[in-house]
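Interim report, section 4.2 (structural modelling).
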Amino acid sequence: MELTAPTTRSAATGWVFKNKWLLLIGAIVVGAIVYAYATNDRVTVAVLASTLRQSTPLILGALCGLIGERSGVVNIGIEGQMLLAAFVAFLANVYIGNLWIALIIGALTGALMGALLAFMAVTLKMDQIIGGTVINILAVGLTGYFYTAGLVTKGKFAPISLGPLADIPLIGPVLFNNPPITYLAIILVFAVHYVLFHTRWGLRTRAVGEHPRAADTVGINVFRTRYINVILAGAIAGLGGAFLTLEGVGSFERLMTNGRGFLALAIMIFGKWTPLGAWAGALLFGFLYALNTQLQFSGVGLPPQLIGSLPYLATILVLAGFVGRSRAPAASGQPYETEG
Amino acid sequence: MSDNDAPIVLEAKGITKQFPGVLANDKVSLTLRRGEILALLGENGAGKSTLMNILYGLYHPDQGEIWIKGEQVTLHSPGDAIARGVGMVHQHFQLVPVMTVAENVILGAEPAGSGLHLNRREANQRVRGLSQQYGLSIDPTVEVEDLPVGLQQRVEIIKALYRNADILILDEPTAVLTPQEANELFRIMHDLTERGVSIIFITHKLKEVLAVSDRIAVLRGGRVAGTADPKTSTEASLAELMVGRKVILQVDKDEARPAAPVLTITDMQVRDDRKHLAVKSLSLEVHAGEILGVAGVQGNGQREFVEALTGLRAMEAGQVIIAGEDATGKLPRYITELDVAHIPEDREKHGLVMGYTIADNLVLNRYYHSPFSRRAVLDRDEIAENAAQLVKQFDVRTPSIYTHASSLSGGNKQKVIVAREFSRPVKLLIANQPTRGIDVGSIEFIHNQIVAQRDAGVAVLLVSAELDEILSLSDRVAVMFDGRIVKTLPIEEATRERVGLLMAGSEA
Ligand SMILES: Nc1ncnc2c1ncn2[C@@H]1O[C@H](COP(=O)(O)OP(=O)(O)OP(=O)(O)O)[C@@H](O)[C@H]1O
Ligand SMILES: [Mg+2]
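Predicted structure of the assembly:
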């Protein structure tokens, strides 16, 4: 945290220098978007809007993962949390018929799964990989058992247009004409960033994830901090699941998360356990999905299998290229022993 | 400013704490008066850290009462102790490496008044204010992992002061400090007592106890073995009270009979973690049957030098010959196989596998050889027998050989490493701070072992920040300054003053 630079000017140039690669990539991306928009505005808007929506469950999952790990709990059960939340939110929509209530129920389902993970990881001090696997298996089992075909809902979330903002060319239709969970995801990216890096709670959470004994010695309750974080993170994963059934597809299918929960973990690592970095990762993958759809739609002469494998190839490249240079919270995955 | 009428600020009454297989504290009673420095002495594993952790609320006593400022208290967590003005600097620092100094200081007691928002500017200012007020200079914005241990220590003290601690527990604060840093710490301690702070000070260095304390309490085997007055005590009398027998503080050794060189280093260059040249052209030679002591203020490249020598760090340039073989840039296993023993500086990081049992830790350097391993299968009986014998021989205080290394006391961890490294015949022994955190009785034992190795024809390279240790063990003294050996002296010429001057960088 570069807070005490002698003058504002040198702070600003210092910031630019420190982030030169980021700025360069940003400039290239913006340039490419503007160029594409000038060439074909309709397709560009469609692809970018789709990018944002495809990225929504991914960033929600990644936020769940990184909040957990920042507090020292590895969560590989995101896939299961999302799947079960998608299912329960769907059922709520079917039987209650109110999308907002269904959304809340979806988040609560995720939170409940988070509580289960926290119980296994923090209280029982179980191996956290096993704990996450338990959740994944549980979710597949429960949704498979209770799923009945032919349930119909009373619809899904429609885009909400943000008045005059939505009329700005390019930016308007992409950013300001979205359904609610997509807006919520963007807000959450910034909210989680703020909480983690600019509040007491965030400082304490990160301390617990890096060095729980040190946190304990200054009077921070390690167990409580981990419980609260893992439960809140679960609620966010729940939103990601609810997105699939309440905003994306509008109905439930078996195993419909389709690996997004695991991809979210890759995105979390890509983003070096930061919300903004993870958002960049989620947008990258969202873009690949969107591009994939667009390419198949416009019938480019490439085999669809090849195009379909793009996101997965990208996962491998991204993880191979970036993981080596980032560092996980030091105590992530380790149970805390009070008198150990 | 010892004052027998000063009010009692902290009192432990009959504290008992049982760990699996060990009675760490057995009805311990202790009082601390306002404005005094109470030194707490005791052998490794005597229960000092345990008692302090109980007074700090980190461990919970099985029995006994704690009174703070005239009030009986139950400490559920360190938060309760902090709220009553107790601060503690732990034997192993409790700092978050990736956070800044200021963040570490305010953690858990962040400045209020701005709602949820973390006010880093104010945090930095508070740290600057404290560091000026107490003369503890430090930059609040650097990350702790970039600080040398001496400064980390300072952060720990600022942490306690920030919380307005007026009862300060210092658990072996000087173990990792240079003599200069230790003197600085004593100055600060006196400063604090002048302001009414009361201090419990744990150390194994008896000189320090006599120099700074107002009163001395000694623990032995979990019990209070007695108290002493520093004015009427000597190092020998304290050692006897601690260990329960006479301790010979002088090393008794014959003339060395050096033979052929075993270790030859020419023009070694090594970079530190920040890629700066930490070792700049270092050359030395150690002969069979002699002890070469490398003296120097910590941070002059000793760590990088030893790490490069043992294969733990890449070498930039130069050559290392061990027993006639070229060991330049070889892997640690290769170097170990050249009959080299290594006692590393950082016992927690490079010396032990914390999650392994003592028995397994004791064969880390040769588990893959017979008799411990037969056709890739470990022989558990042999490993256990080896452990039982070494634990006895080196007096490791542990309930069982199957105890995890992590639950040993600091000094007993060190003994396990020493036991392992001395347990097979070697040609070269590299000992980096071999007695850090070890009690006087065990230091005597380890020093005798090192001399016995020398007499058996082993070449010994001793690196230590303790000038006393260097001067009492070495046959020749090499002084390291700024990444170089600035001078090598025969022990007869190595007076305390001369070596001290060389260590400070002035040519003598
Ligand atoms: N968390 C723990 N679990 C089990 N046993 C422990 C634990 N902590 C300490 N012990 C045991 O309690 C005894 C006292 O340990 P303690 O750390 O208090 O010793 P100490 O006096 O501080 O020694 P040193 O000078 O080596 O630091 C030792 O036998 C140690 O093995
Ligand atoms: Mg101790």
